Amino acid sequence: MLHFEPKNISVPELHKLLLGGVAPRPIALVSTLSKDGIPNLSPFSFFNAFGANPPIIAFSPARRGKDASLKDTYNNLTDTKECVVQSVTYSMVEQISLASSEFSSNVDEFIKSGLTPIKSNLVKPFRVKESPFQMECKLLEMKNYGEKGGSANLAVCEVIKLHIKKEVMKDGNIEPNLIDLVSRMSANYYCRANGESIFVVEKPGSNVGVGFDNIPEFIKKSDIFSANDLAKFAGISSIPTIEEVLKFKTKIEKEHYNIKLTLEKDFFEYQNLNDYKSMLIISLKLLKTNKDDKKYLEYSAKCALQNNDKEFAWKTALLQENIS
Ligand SMILES: Cc1cc2nc3c(=O)[nH]c(=O)nc-3n(C[C@H](O)[C@H](O)[C@H](O)COP(=O)(O)O)c2cc1C
After folding, report:
1. What is the pLDDT of residues 208-223, one digit of tens each?
2. Superfamily of domain 6-197, CATH level 4
3. pTM attached to this predicted model
4. What is the C-alpha separation between 250 and 242, in angstroms, rounded?
């Protein structure tokens, strides 16, 4: 590991490290109005939501690194106490980058970035039409943390109205692939949240798992199971008994008696299809010819875990120790 104490490195160096390690960060596209009514639009990735009752978001229009001056967004917010914060999608990312240029405070950044202003309902700053997720906000407090270049100013806001494009909703949730958001990482890197970068982690909910310490050593020592796989094993609330494991074996053999394939290549074909039940049947057949080769059982269990079938995975993994 490399070790740093903030007091021993330069502010730009520290800023760079924070940007890389605290990532990917959501991006707030913040619309404000100056006290003279000039629209301002700037992105801020030191941003998040912090609660829903009341709905609180916060972002940091920090002091400029080069001269410690305050940004237009900061001045507008402290003057007018209002803003609209919108999420940033892949289709608008170049425009929000353009909006981050240091245009002077009398320049309308909607015009410069080519983004479209539309009227808000409860606050004066405009919403950005292109964004599918817009929050009209009131400033609750502006917290200052220093007066040097790079010092944070935390704008804590209450959301008083949300506008969400119907097309990004599915079954009452915002569907990540439909909204297609981007986030900020280190240097000039961004991240697009779609396709294979989106995956599911089941919530433990009220279920209390058995924990890593109750996983048998022969499972923990396997080269086939990753730490994520072991954590899924650890999440089951009770480990199947030997009787349950043997009953499971009889049942699955009965259900899949029609599978006659016994070759390794057949096994991996089923793996490509995510068909862990057929994988297990072939594993059991392969085991009849080579009793020591338990890896097929482990691959079948791993595939079951990937499909969040923990019960099946446990019973399959435990068959290793309970097969004669
Ligand atoms: C994706 C992105 C994220 C940014 N995040 C921040 C941030 O969290 N805080 C900050 O002070 N500046 C951030 N910046 C830089 C500001 O957008 C930039 O300083 C902008 O000119 C400020 O505009 P203003 O003076 O009109 O408020 C970010 C820039 C980009 C492109």
Report:
1. 999 999 999 999 999 9
2. Electron Transport, Fmn-binding Protein; Chain A (2.30.110.10)
3. 0.91
4. 13
